[in-house]
Amino acid sequence: MRIALAADAHGGTLWPLGEEARRVGDLARAVHDLERDVRPRWIWADTRAVYPALIERDVRVARCHDLTLTESLLLAYEGRYGEPRSAQAAHARLRGLPVPADETGPHAVQDTLFEPEPVEIDLAAVYADQLRRVAATEDPARFRLLVAAESAGALVAAEMGHDGMPWREDLHDQLLSELLGPKPVRGMRPAKLQALADQVGAAFGTAVNPDSPQQLVKAFKMAGLTVTSTRSHVLKQVDHPAVGPLLAYKELARLYSSHGWAWAQQWVRGHRLRPEYVAGGVVSGRWATSGGGALQIPKVMRRAVVADEGWRLVVADAAQLEPRVLAAMAGDRGLARAAGEIDLYAALAQAFGGARENAKIAMLSAMYGGTSGDAAKLLAVMRQRFPLAYAFVEDAAKAGEDGRLVRSWLGRTCPPPSAHWLKLVSGPEGGRAARDRGRFTRNFVVQATAAEWALTLMALLRGLLPAPARLVFFQHDEVMVHCPEDLVNEVSAGVSRAAEEATRLLFGETPVRIPMEAVAVACYADAK
DNA sequence: AAGGCCTATAAC
DNA sequence: TTCGGTTATAGGCCTT
């Protein structure tokens, strides 16, 4: 059963497909009852606008179809990248009405919540149109899976944003104090940071703001040293007494400004980090965050992520996900056989002269377009030993260089070349621009497919988790579940099973394995 | 004062 | 001949 749903200021409208629409005063109550009785697939305009209010009322749904995310996938597939993707825009296109631009900006979703819809959107008609367009894709079964996974991802993102990841404010403060000195008063640098800044100044013989690349370059110049930038790896080559304290400063300043006290004040409440995840926020299908920086948490801060009393964190990541995905996509039997092993690179080592490191460089260069060091030599070996995998990424690169589109395994489509690129590519620097886009499309097919595998895994795992276990973190190829201690085994088994099912759902019968070993820990820092 | 671009670095 | 992809965030610095 499928039910379209629209929220408004006074409740909402439910529209079981093929039946009359009916208004309800208490939307959350109605959704709860229907979810309990019939478990429909909910069709709604935008999960980010609709679902948080339901979660707030403790109502969760198993399945949905997000019209905005689906429209976005379809427009890209159809070569119409950039057209407005909201359900309202899709509706307007169907009816021949003026198409409203998408809301943009940090508060777009919240703003629309409090504004009445300017026009009534025929959700069922938009949905039917999308199903028709999905059926017209080259492989409708795959695209349907993509739509389902993307929509499920939106549910998970909203739920994780609500539940939050366990975060001990006291341990975070303790960690910051150890590294930086006590929390400073507003406008002051923490003591250890100031001491390092003073050392840098002393080494130059004049006060320099270590946060200013311009001042640093000038100061080095006065000391008779020319630096092309003030990046850490450049400074490491420079012999000057300021370099030591400067590198230390940079590392700590990063922690302070990006994940320091101000950050915690804004994003941590009641022992939970609650960032805002954006499913489908990256062209490759990876998630983004629009606040909270949850996908860039420095590793040292994992010490602050601690399970509640009597609970555990079950942490699992898919090791070597991208080369495994490539092996499955390309149907390269030799690579797929190696991808049946726990350590793919070790299994490949023999083909690359015995060194595991060489195998790794070869694979990464193939997927990222790397050319430095021994890459060229190793890629030649790869071409010979794993011709299908090699050809797969080469074809993707060639398509990008030619200005064509590439797609992931399930049909996510890369953006078309920009007008700027088209101009560049026919000019004197055209070769460079073409190669740049080739690297992008080469990586896109792998990264996007890895992302949809991870999305599928998460959708499956969400359905397998026993209450009250909760998904609390997801970072590209890694998931974290927070659960009572006595559920650890069940949750770990769920993770492995979800990984196996995700692999089979995407790739069918294949020797490739994408193992996910879960570990249960009290503290995230102990997971690796 | 606000906004856009640049540089730098965190994650995968 | 150099020259690996996707991001978020913050501070400096320049323009308006």
Automatic annotation (TrEMBL):
<dbReference type="Pfam" id="PF00476">
    <property type="entry name" value="DNA_pol_A"/>
</dbReference>
<dbReference type="InterPro" id="IPR043502">
    <property type="entry name" value="DNA/RNA_pol_sf"/>
</dbReference>
<dbReference type="GO" id="GO:0006302">
    <property type="term" value="P:double-strand break repair"/>
</dbReference>
<feature type="domain" description="DNA-directed DNA polymerase family A palm">
    <location>
        <begin position="298"/>
        <end position="487"/>
    </location>
</feature>
<dbReference type="InterPro" id="IPR001098">
    <property type="entry name" value="DNA-dir_DNA_pol_A_palm_dom"/>
</dbReference>
<dbReference type="GO" id="GO:0003677">
    <property type="term" value="F:DNA binding"/>
</dbReference>
<dbReference type="GO" id="GO:0006261">
    <property type="term" value="P:DNA-templated DNA replication"/>
</dbReference>
<keyword id="KW-0235">DNA replication</keyword>
<dbReference type="InterPro" id="IPR002298">
    <property type="entry name" value="DNA_polymerase_A"/>
</dbReference>
<protein>
    <recommendedName>
        <fullName>DNA-directed DNA polymerase</fullName>
        <ecNumber>2.7.7.7</ecNumber>
    </recommendedName>
</protein>
<dbReference type="GO" id="GO:0003887">
    <property type="term" value="F:DNA-directed DNA polymerase activity"/>
</dbReference>
